[in-house]
């Protein structure tokens, strides 16, 4: 790895971090590349060299978050089943210790419901993939009799992902009154015939 | 009621409707009273007569929504129990037919997680009241044996409110893939020992 390449990578990471911070504070639409460049300690022209458009920078922020989550919790590595559900709980535990990224994500998700928002396709795909991953696990649990009879695996998957998102906004608003992890554990446990976390 | 008073009321309502539309499209922070006045077909000075600040207009938008919801579903009229839960389901059914107001609400909620946002106190109070109302019903159901043993009523209330909010954002993003009402019914039913909607 050449010194110039490494320097470019670091610079790029700094810009992505600055962008995430600015999105969290002002939202994506109200942010400007000029403001983000200032925050990253780089010239406007320097930022444009790495990210020629607002949309390209937004995509980089979202992709970095996904890559970090996936690497940390190895969400896609476990076979469908209880272990996948436990990894999503671990992700929620991680998020509670990282308010900044949760704020960025919640804010962008609400902005991006419009089809013309540049992050719309990202969130549509993100929700679909998250639902599919969880649904696979619920289907596997249904086959082994670990899912409560009568529970629809696909509907349960939608419910779990929506609950994660809704808890985040409520927790950001009133942190001391919201037990995010407790709520997720309760919600999953009531769907199962076996303990989610055996003693 | 004098003609002048009535005209003032109508004008005020028009401004509140225009503000809700602009918040839904641009968010609160990126909106301006000038843009809202234009949308309402009133002069900037005319708008300032009714709403001297951005914050006053935001408060009016949120208060109108609460008043409309409460009047329609009579959320506060029923004694704690199954009927209150059914009224929240009815509210969700109503929301699915009114995308615009759901978009405004979801967007403002995500913006208002910061303590310095002018709608922060509103959302903190709104969440607390919604949780309290639902918690009272779960406590009543626990006493009659209609809540599943081992389910914490307060945690279940938090879960239900968070689920409503999370479903809204996911439904706004991918409407055809999200069964909001089905998810809420499943989630409530798994917490109960009796049918939520008897056949």
Automatic annotation (TrEMBL), chains A, B:
InterPro entries linked to this entry: BetI_C (IPR039538), Homeodomain-like_sf (IPR009057), HTH_TetR (IPR001647), Tet_transcr_reg_TetR-rel_C_sf (IPR036271)
Highest rank taxon of the organism: Bacteria
Residue span(s) of domain HTH tetR-type: 9-69
Pfam families: TetR_C_6 (PF13977), TetR_N (PF00440)
The keyword Acetylation belongs to this UniProt entry's keyword annotation: no
SUPFAM superfamilies given in the database record: Homeodomain-like, Tetracyclin repressor-like, C-terminal domain
Protein name as annotated: TetR/AcrR family transcriptional regulator
Organism: Amycolatopsis albidoflavus
């Amino acid at each position: 790895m050449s010194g110039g390449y490494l320097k470019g990578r670091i610079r790029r990471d700094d810009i992505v971090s600055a962008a995430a911070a600015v999105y969290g504070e002002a939202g994506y639409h109200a942010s400007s590349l000029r403001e983000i460049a200032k925050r990253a300690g780089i010239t406007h022209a320097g930022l444009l060299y790495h990210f020629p458009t607002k949309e390209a920078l937004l995509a980089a922020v979202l992709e970095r978050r996904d890559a970090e989550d996936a690497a940390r919790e190895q969400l896609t590595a476990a076979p469908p089943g209880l272990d996948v559900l436990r990894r999503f709980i671990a992700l929620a535990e991680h998020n509670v210790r990282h308010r900044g990224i949760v704020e960025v994500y919640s804010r962008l998700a609400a902005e991006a419901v419009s089809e013309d928002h540049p992050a719309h396709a990202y969130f549509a795909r993100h929700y679909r993939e998250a639902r599919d991953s969880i649904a696979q696990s619920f289907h596997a649990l249904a086959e082994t009799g670990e899912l409560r009879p009568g529970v629809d695996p696909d509907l349960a998957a939608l419910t779990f992902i929506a609950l994660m998102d809704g808890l985040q906004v409520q927790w950001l608003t009133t942190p001391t009154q919201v037990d995010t992890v407790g709520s997720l554990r309760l919600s999953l446990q009531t769907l199962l015939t076996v303990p989610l976390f055996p003693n």
